[in-house]
Amino acid sequence: MTTPLAPSEEGDNGDWIVVRGARTHNLRNIDVKIPRGKFVVFSGVSGSGKSSLAFDTLYAEGQRRYVESLSSYARQFLGQMKKPDCDSIEGLSPAISIDQKQGSHNPRSTVATVTEIMDYLRLLWARIGVPHCPECGNEVARRTVQEIVDDVLWKFESHGIGVWSPVVRNRKGTHADLFQAMVEQGYLAGQVNGREADFENPPALEKNLRHDIDVRIDRIKINRTNRQRLTEAIETALRLGGGAVAIENIEGPQEPSCDIKIGDTVAYSEEFACPDHGAFLPEMSPRVFSFNNPLGACPSCQGLGVQREFSPELVIDRTNAVDEGCIRPFRRSMMSGWYKSQMMQVCNHYSIPVNVPFQDLDEDQKDILLNGTGSTTIGFHFQSDKGSSYRMNRPWEGVFARLRRTLTDTSSDRTRSRLAAYMTDEPCSDCRGKKLNPAVSKVTVGSITLPDFSASTVLEALAIVQSWKSDSMDPIWSTLDRSRPEGGTVSKTNKLDDRSIFIGTDVIKEIESRLRFLALVGLDYLTMDRRANTLSGGESQRIRLATQIGTRLTGVMYVLDEPSIGLHPRDNERLLKTLRELTDLGNTLIVVEHDELTLTQADWLVDLGPRAGKEGGEVIASGSLEDLLSAKDSETGAYLSGKKSIPVPNERRPPDERWLTLKSVRQNNLQDIDAAFPLGCMIGVTGVSGSGKSSLVTETLAPALLRTIHRADATPGRHDSIQGIEQIDKAIVIDQSPIGRTPRSNAATYTGVFGLIRALYAETTLSKERGYKQGHFSFNVRGGRCEACKGAGSTMLEMNFLPDVWVTCDVCKGKRYTRETLEVEWKGRTIHDILEMSVDEACVIFENQRKISRILNTLKDVGLGYIRLGQPATTLSGGEAQRVKLATELHRPPKKHTFYILDEPTTGLSLFDVHQLIDVLLRIRSNGHTVVIVEHHLDVVKSCDWVIDLGPEGGVRGGMIIAQGTPEDVVSVGESHTGRHLRELL
After folding, report:
1. pLDDT tens by residue, 126-158
2. Does 849 reside within a domain?
3. What pLDDT is attached to residue 450?
4. DSSP state letters, 110-148
5. Which of 613, 641, 669 is the last residue of a domain?
6. What is the CATH number of the domain that holds 454?
7. 784 in helix, strand or coil?
8. Is 779 in a helix, a strand, or coil?
9. Most buried of 502, 757, 759, 830, CB within 10 angstroms?
10. Which CATH number belongs to the domain containing residue 417 in this structure?
């Protein structure tokens, strides 16, 4: 084991961060030195103390010192971290943490807003944007009176013109008061709905219809001497017409001075409004281009781009007939009989079969049932159980109209909640998901609207910006190893004029810079309008990383948590170059990482271990890569040096005749693919970031299985059918969502082992004498728990200008239970002692308790032997939570054929832990079950029986199956990025 040098033994202490006596969590009073301004990687097995040192010690102290330098007033608005348990830390810089936690949960946050690109886009559109009418598409310009007069004098010289004021446009009413007011002001003639009218004897207008009214202000023969008269006429027309005026060409000279035909009009406006259609843009300012501002947002969806609508997939049970209750919400309603009777009578009226599955009905028949009969009435006859009956004639409103009306009219929260379960977010019917109102969404820069720019990927947006500058030879494309996008939105844009370039050059530079950094950290496939709450933890982290690189700060300590998560090996090299930019600026970069490439390229390595939990927390090696490789107790060094390795399986299980096939999958960017999964195999779904892996597995395959097999309320992605599902008895989807959102949840309660342990304590002699039941040993309910802290073991003290402090409960001394409860022991240990044990320790204690032992050993098998049974769920990483779920499913008696789906299960795992996980997954497969894994880790991919590789790129250039077969088959496909990197391991 390597002992770090004392500060006095090496160099100038100003070049080092020196930690003495760190005891946070499982750290064993360690001393460690970290070079400043370098790329430093913390490695070690899961649970060895890497995050405890990086985040809970170094970052916590750096952030705490910075916050304490602020005024007490400012501190009350900032979250403060607990002071880490260590003797001293010297040489610490201000710290910024970029972890894997999901970013904003606000549905209004997008990639563009989080990266601040949207702020610059709004400024650019406000400064150089060109408004257009959403109705006719004509360019809309704001002009002063003098500009209008000059244009009329130039266009209509020697012509006779009429000056018209559009006083009413597309407005309901009789407008009698308007006609009278015009006559009183001396305007006696005009046009009503395009026809000449005498305002002294106006036509009678229908008040419920929309009308157009134009007032003739003057007739003028245009020449330079009439300028004053023309100016007065135009000013009057603009005043009466709300800023709009129209000039009609009445007569012209023998040699016309313009191309405008006799009888045609030219419209002008003082505002950004179309004189013909009235489409109005209030102003050209950045706030108008924000979907979070009422001035610019779509009024129907308030700028969300989506509306809650009843989903046909959730509402309709397509396999059932009308007489079997094919409308799910009607089946669960108290008025189910009433609804069924109505639908049966509609079917009888239109000769729609009631005993045929809904999916087999004609489209016209489905439309009648779902959307109603319009104004066509149907004779309904209703009869109650008591014998009373009545008849009525009325239209059938349709299933969806009925559901919407019930949701609107009901005062019952229960009914509203029940119906909400059948609703999903659908694109807004008015703005089509663009989020902005029609006038704002038609403003263009380089012929591109803001919604179109936002809908483009990072790569496309970068190409568009370069088209504005006519700069297509930028070396960024060779750096990214990408070809420049040419089609789609990119092909619609054009070079900006010199004036626009002059005004927007600084803003365009900022936009381009941020897009470059997003592309460099492997996010070139994301669209600008992608919701932040749909991003994975790795994507959120890399977005924040790109933002930080763009700030160009120096002298900062950055702490990152596995930035390579979710990133294909193809993109790792580019990510590392981008990370180097942070250290080149003079920052210290501390990265918690397991990726081999990252470990080999670090300037300095700190390896913690040797094992996890209580057996970890020591510095095994600190120094160069050579120091790590020579450390005899380092698992990381053993795998990097080749002393240990994850072997290629001696044989793979070949597919038999059993297959599960998804037909014509079109979800997101998937291009109408057929995906076939061989049952009884371990299948890896691979591909570069954004290629469609999650769209295929998480959004389509998993919901389709859960809905069909378990009748879950899940909506699969767009596809035609799923074949072979009858061969599967159970589907289990294991993701990285938390197993609990409160400190009261833990691995013991989630897996169910704590219930078995409590039952064991309830069977002791003392418990029986006192009448203690199993519930008495729960810390979540009254009985045996300490009521002073409600079973939490600690209480919170609120500190106004300091972080809130959790102090150990004075009554139970942190043990959660009453003194009487803790008198009950099993094998000399209280229930509190059990919760404080690691899984490894508990395996020994309960080895003779078959049910308990099976659960504990499963947790140990998936690499979680180091966690405490009572460790709060909120302290578990995403990878740990996923493995707790996996262990929970594995200990249950298996069905005949179970289909497991895992999403990047190697998150947070060292090579040692990955080796263990692969053994567990292969054991599941050996028992005859199917395992599907979405994964980038090449050691897992090489261990699979079958691989489905998607690509070739991300976003619109992905979504196809590039290769499928054994890992050896994938290697032979030249177009496969996965195959190219996998070749080195086979």
Report:
1. 999 999 888 888 888 778 899 899 889 988 888
2. yes
3. 96
4. BHHHHTTHHHHHHHHHHHH-B-B-TTT--B-----HHHH
5. 641
6. 1.20.1580.10
7. coil
8. coil
9. 757
10. 1.10.8.280
Residue 401 lies in a domain: yes
Average pLDDT over residues 512-526: 90
How many domains is the chain partitioned into structurally? 6
Whether residue 600 is found in the same domain as residue 697: no
Residue 817 has pLDDT above 60, yes or no: yes
Integer angstrom CA distances of residue 847 from 36, 850, 855, 920: 49, 7, 11, 20
Range of the domain at 211: 145-270
CATH of the domain at 942: 3.40.50.300
Q: Which residue has the tokens 């002298």?
A: 555
State the number of CA atoms in the 13 A half-sphere of 219 facing the CB. 5
User: Which residues face 452 on adjacent strands?
Assistant: none
Residue 394 has φ and ψ, to the nearest 5°, of -165, 160
The whole-number average pLDDT for the span 904-922 is 89
Asked if residue 134 belongs to a domain, the reply is no
Q: Which two tokens stand for residue 392?
A: 């009525």
Q: Are residues 775 and 663 in the same domain?
A: no
Section 659-686 average pLDDT: 96
SS (HEC) of 424-490: EEEECCCCCCCCECCCHHHCEECCEEHHHHHCCEHHHHHHHHHHHHCCCCCCHHHHHCCCCCCCCHH
User: What pTM value is reported for the model?
Assistant: 0.78
Residues 869 and 758 both lie in one domain: yes
CA distance 972 to 952: 15
- Long-range contacts: 550-553, Cβ < 8 Å, 24+? 550/115, 550/513, 550/514, 550/517, 552/585, 553/96, 553/585, 553/587
Answer yes or no: are the C-beta atoms of 97 and 63 closer than 8 Å.
Answer: yes
Block residue for tokens 């781009």: 305
Task: Give the number of residues written for the chain.
Answer: 986
Q: Is the per-residue pLDDT at 1 higher than 60?
A: no
Residues 823-868: tens digit of each pLDDT = 999 999 999 999 999 999 999 999 999 999 999 999 998 888 888 9
Q: What is the pLDDT of residue 341?
A: 87
Helix (H, G, I), strand (E, B) or coil at 511: helix
Q: What is the pLDDT of residue 608?
A: 96
Cβ atoms of residues 865 and 858 within 8 Å: no
User: Among 715, 685, 725, which residue's Cα sits nearest to residue 901?
Assistant: 685
On the question of a cis peptide bond just before residue 649, with omega within 30 degrees of 0, the verdict is: no
> Same domain, yes or no, for 886 and 857?
no
Q: What is the pLDDT of residue 4?
A: 52
**Residue 511 counted as domain residue:** yes
Comparing CA positions, the residue from 523, 529, 518 lying closest to residue 566 is 523
Tokens of 108: 């209004």
Please name the residue ranges forming H helices in 241-389.
312-315, 328-331, 336-350, 363-371
How would residue 486 be classed by pLDDT, with cut points 50, 70 and 90? confident
**R_g over Cα of the chain:** 35
Q: Is the dihedral of CA 226, 229, 232, 237 positive or negative?
A: negative
Tokens of 268: 């002008």
Whether residues 686 and 753 share a domain: the answer is: no
Alpha-carbon distance 980 to 864, whole Å? 33
pLDDT exceeds cutoff 70 at 3: no
Residues 751 and 870 in one domain: yes
**Residue that finishes a domain, picked among 590, 611, 641:** 641
Model confidence band, residue 289 (pLDDT cutoffs 50, 70, 90): very high
Report residue 206: phi and psi, to 5°.
-75, 125
More confident site: 179 or 471: 179
Least confident piece of the model among 84-98, 279-293, 681-695, 762-776: 279-293
Same domain, 344 and 397: yes
Tell how strand 39-44 and strand 604-609 pair up: parallel
**pLDDT above 50 for 9:** no
Looking at the fold, whether 681 and 622 belong to one and the same domain comes out as no
pLDDT at 11 over 80: no
